[in-house]
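Thread: "does anyone have the structure for this chain?"

Original post by V.I.:
We have the sequence but no experimental structure in hand. Need at least a predicted one for the grant figures.
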Amino acid sequence: MGIVHAIILGIVQGLTEYLPVSSDAHVRLTMLALGLSDKGGAAFTAMIHFGTILAVLIYFWKDIATAVGAWAKSLSGKENKNSPEARLGWAVFWGTIPVVIAALILKKPVETTFRSIYFIAFAFIGMGMVMFAMDRFGKANRKTESVTVLDGILVGAWQIFALIPGMSRSGSTIAGAQARGFDRASAAKLSFLVAIPTITGAGLFEAYHSRKELGHGLLMPVIVGNIVSFVVGYAAISFLMNFIRKNGIGVFVIYRVVLGVVLIVLMMTGRLDPNAGADEDVAKTPAVATAVR
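Reply from O.Q.:
Generated one for you, tokens below.
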């Protein structure tokens, strides 16, 4: 992993983490285009999530500080648990639990089976259709201030879909929030806030798991990747919050479907190996073999 590679991946990570197009899938495809093995790709991607986390922390700092403060005070009874700020804090807290449990259960397929480009292609198309349906038919009459703990749990549960590259954490949680009746801007904000503990936890876990590699040439690429992903990620958040309020998510749906179809055509015509660049474990996984057949 060279510095140039880290810069490219940092740009891709920062740009696609918060746009509803799936950062994991784009990093996977970018590594393939750069001729890099996917082995360790998921770990490197998780470790440069700190840059994008810092971006969302700074962008939503006022909302985060207020919610965390109210949540902490509600624990000691100094503030009503039903205040909008405390409810937002509790919603984020409980919204983290479902994906943590799912990630522990599905750790092996997440690292192998789900990284097949077949899964990625169909995930692009499938979640694109879901996003379109939620944006088109959702009630869109709720603001972030009306969030409840149940909203947090249900929206947080949509993060489970993001364990499959191509689904997109922001895409799935925005769709989940719209299914609960939140308007576009509120759905995007709730999506970003619910993702903070999950992405932070994933980054810390992978950093600890790969601590030996950090001492053998990976530390500098990770630092560079995080700096780049922070700058690009902040710009992406600002862009999406303004764009989605006025234009919706139609352009992202079209992009996802077109990219998914292109990948399927390339695989069906033999121009793209669905397991290209992946670990040997991926090709040996029965679920992938079934998908290929």
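V.I.: this helps a lot. DSSP finds 15 helices and no strands in the chain.
O.Q.: and Residues 281-293 have pLDDT under 50 and may be disordered.
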